[in-house]
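## Example record

The block below lists the input lines for one assembly entry, exactly as stored, with component labels intact.
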Amino acid sequence: MKISTKGRYATKLMLDLATYNTGSPVSLKDVAKRQDISEKYLEQIISSLSKAGMVRSVRGAQGGYLLTKEPKEYTVGEILEVTEGKIATVDCLRDDGYSCDAKNQCVTIRIWEKINDAVKDVVDNITLQDLLDWQAEGADQYVI
Amino acid sequence: MKISTKGRYATKLMLDLATYNTGSPVSLKDVAKRQDISEKYLEQIISSLSKAGMVRSVRGAQGGYLLTKEPKEYTVGEILEVTEGKIATVDCLRDDGYSCDAKNQCVTIRIWEKINDAVKDVVDNITLQDLLDWQAEGADQYVI
DNA sequence: CTTATTCCTAGTTGTCAAGTAGGAATATAG
DNA sequence: CTATATTCCTACTTGACAACTAGGAATAAG
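Predicted C-alpha cells for the full assembly:
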C-alpha cells in the first residue's frame, strides 16, 4: 500500500503555499523550483485543489495561487482526499457504489476497516499549521 | 493507498487454514472453492508463505497445507509483509537501500511515518486467533 | 498406474501512476 | 499595444505492476 506522488506532491505544494503565504500569489514555477517537482505536473495537481476551492488562482503575469483559508484549517486528510480520492485501502470499503457481495460474511474486512480508521485518524489530525510548526522547530532533530 | 488482492487473499487463505486446522492437510482446491479465489493464484501466494515457513506443505494426493504454529502466533502484519513486502506508504520510508536525499529537510515525511506506524500498530496487533474469534462471534452483527 | 496434489517458471492483459506536450486564455509591465 | 508571464485545458506517452492464466514437472496415495 502506497500513497502516490500526486498526494505527496499536493501536500508539499500546499505546505509551500502556506510557507510563502504573504498575500501575493505564489507561482507554480517557484514552487516547482523549490520542491523540485515538474511544473507541468504541479499544474494538474493544483487543478484539483483549485476546483475543490482549497486555493485561489490569479492569472497572468505575477499571478499564481493563494490559500483560501488559514493553514490551521487545512487537514492533510482533505488534501489527500481531493488529490487521491477516498483513501480506502480496499475496494469493499468504498462508499461510492461498488460493494463486496460477501460483506456480511467477510471477517477480514474488519481488518481493512481498522486500518482505514487508523489512517484517517492520523491524516485528519494533522493540519498545514502543524507542518509549519514542525518546519519551524527545525528539521535538524530528524536527521539520521 | 491500497492493499492488493495478494495480501487480502493471503489473509483469507491463512484464516481458512486456521479454520480447518484439524491436523490433516488442507488442499488449495478446497480453499479456492470456499473463498472463491483462483486456485492457480493461490498457489503463487502460498508459495511465499511456505518459503517464509509460515505453512508446511504435504505433496501428492490427499496433500495440502498446514499451519506451523498456533493461530494466535500469526499476526496479520506478518502475513501482509510476507506477501506484499514491507508495508511502506512511501518509498522514502523503505529501509532497503533506497532513500530520499532530502530526508532531513522534508517535513512531510513525518506524516508518512505516522501513517506507517498507525497501520503497523493495527496489523501487528491482530492475530489469526482474533479473526477466528470474530468469526465465532458471528458476522451477523456486521450486516449492513 | 492413475489420480490428486504441490511446485516452478513463464506468459498475458489491462490498468494506472507519473509524467510530457502543446497551445489557448488572461493579465501585467514597459 | 506588444512582449512576457502566468494559469488553464485536453490529450498523449511510457513503463511498471497487479492480477491473474497456462503448462507441465515432481511427488505421493490408493
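The radius of gyration of chain A is 18 Å. Chain A has six helices and two strands.
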